[in-house]
């Protein structure tokens, strides 16, 4: 159940065909049932508790399906069947492999002279970024436009939230425009999941605080797969600000599910308290942590999230944890370097190494980002459409 800030509680059931909602001052849960090619049916459930409301809503949903001879079919070719992508933890190995395989067709497509098809023609995608972003926002914008979707970028500085409107009011307003996909970046952890429970559109988490960034981890996985084909014998080092990095969390989840072994390397004060519960081996020394690694993934120092007390001296940090050619020698002979960007050159990574096309996959990550996001947009919209077909 979601209670986006204030005013109203929501819950969606049956691939968003049932919407339960309760206003702040209302005693009873209301229900809205929208079946394929049928007018929406709205009424009170007559119950104060969500559990009872769910039961009566599902009972009414089943009755209306039978009355209108509606059969819900799903595309058997889609392994990932959800209509949202908000947490890497929601993905199993088959889901991840399916998304990576679907993205492959867009890699070659994006190299064509004319990069345009009509897969999402007439569909509307909203980019809702409540934090600064260039790479991720632009990547989603390019992905949507290459699929012929109508793309709306909502700038926070122009948003009514800055005029006192609540996030709920903003989401309710946008939801009334019948969007197909909402791409959301927000500083509050878990907000994308809560919004997904309260709107009709597909929701993609483009980063929520220090919590998760699923499409970044998926594009990193695709980049690695293109080089190594398999993950089962790979040793991958993730280095730097682990504590504040949503990229680190999502990559640990996804890469470990694919079979890679993960080393994390960071100063002690930049290691999460729950690090020992994650499928990683922990190091505080670069030489030890990089031993036998095939991929070295550096992280941006999250200055906007770091307490000043643990902000290191940049020169000292680079000496101990910044990646250069000398430290890269601790890894495998032909190890590759990655970074999600934006980079702090000379702090997290040596500038020359970052630009070395024989060792650096950083620009390839950017290219894979567009392919992954095109695949995610297509998959989620198809899943939503499948749920609404006879």
Report what the structure shows.
The protein has three domains: 60 residues; 145 residues, Rossmann fold, CATH 3.40.50; 148 residues, Aspartate/ornithine carbamoyltransferase (Rossmann fold), CATH 3.40.50.1370. The mean pLDDT is 89. The strands form three sheets. The protein has a five-stranded parallel sheet with strand order 11-10-9-12-13. The longest helix has 25 residues. The radius of gyration is 23 Å and the shape is globular. It starts with 7 loop residues before the first strand and ends with a helix. It has twelve helices and 13 strands. With 390 residues, the protein is an alpha/beta fold. α6 crosses α7.
Largest sheet: 5 strands, parallel
CATH superfamily name of the largest domain?
A: Aspartate/ornithine carbamoyltransferase
Oligomer: single chain
Helix-strand sequence = EEEEHHEHEHEHEHEHEEHEHHEHH
State the gist of this model.
With 390 residues, the chain is an alpha/beta fold. The protein has three domains: 8-67; 88-213 and 368-386, Aspartate/ornithine carbamoyltransferase (Rossmann fold), CATH 3.40.50.1370; 215-362, 3-Layer(aba) Sandwich (Rossmann fold).
Topology (SSEs and partners):
Layout: E1 8-13, E2 18-23, E3 30-33, E4 41-44, H1 50-67, H2 93-109, E5 124-129, H3 135-146, E6 150-155, H4 167-175, E7 181-186, H5 191-196, E8 202-208, H6 214-228, E9 235-239, H7 246-257, E10 261-265, E11 281-283, H8 286-290, E12 295-298, H9 314-321, H10 325-328, E13 336-338, H11 351-354, H12 362-386
Parallel strand pairs: 5-6, 5-7, 7-8, 9-10, 9-12, 10-11, 12-13
Antiparallel strand pairs: 1-2, 2-3, 3-4
């Amino acid at each position: 159940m979601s209670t986006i800030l204030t005013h109203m509680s929501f819950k969606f059931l049956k691939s968003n065909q049932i919407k339960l909602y309760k206003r702040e001052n209302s005693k009873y849960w209301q229900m809205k049932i929208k079946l394929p090619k049928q007018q929406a049916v709205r009424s009170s459930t007559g119950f104060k508790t969500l559990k009872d409301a769910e039961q009566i809503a599902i009972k009414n949903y089943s009755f209306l399906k039978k009355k209108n001879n509606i059969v819900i079919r799903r595309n058997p070719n889609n392994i990932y069947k959800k209509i949202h992508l908000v947490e890497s933890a929601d993905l199993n190995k088959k889901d991840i492999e399916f998304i990576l395989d679907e993205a492959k067709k867009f890699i070659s497509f994006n190299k064509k002279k004319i990069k345009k098809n009509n897969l999402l023609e007439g569909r509307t995608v909203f980019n809702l970024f409540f934090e600064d972003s260039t790479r991720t926002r632009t990547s989603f914008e390019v992905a949507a436009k290459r699929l012929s979707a109508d793309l709306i970028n909502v700038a926070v500085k122009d948003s009514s939230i800055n005029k006192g409107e609540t996030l709920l009011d903003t989401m309710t307003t946008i939801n009334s425009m019948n969007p197909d996909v909402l791409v959301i970046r927000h500083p509050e952890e878990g907000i994308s999941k809560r919004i997904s429970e309260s709107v009709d559109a597909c929701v993609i988490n483009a980063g929520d605080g220090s919590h998760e960034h699923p499409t970044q981890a998926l594009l990193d996985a695709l980049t690695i797969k293109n080089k190594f084909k398999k993950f089962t014998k790979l040793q991958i080092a993730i280095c730097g600000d682990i504590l504040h990095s949503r990229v680190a969390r999502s990559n640990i989840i996804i890469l470990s599910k694919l079979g890679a072994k993960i080393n994390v390397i960071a100063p002690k004060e930049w290691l999460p308290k729950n690090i020992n519960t994650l499928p990683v081996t922990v190091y505080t020394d670069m030489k030890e942590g990089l031993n036998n690694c095939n991929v070295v993934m550096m992280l941006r120092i999250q200055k906007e999230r770091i307490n000043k007390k643990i902000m290191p001296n940049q020169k000292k940090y680079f000496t101990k944890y910044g990646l250069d050619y000398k430290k890269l020698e601790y890894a495998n002979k032909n190890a590759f370097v990655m970074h999600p960007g934006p980079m702090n050159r000379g702090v997290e990574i040596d500038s020359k190494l970052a630009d070395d096309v024989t060792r650096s996959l950083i620009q390839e990550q950017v290219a894979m980002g567009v392919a992954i996001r095109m695949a995610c947009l297509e998959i989620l919209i198809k899943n939503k459409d499948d749920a609404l077909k006879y």
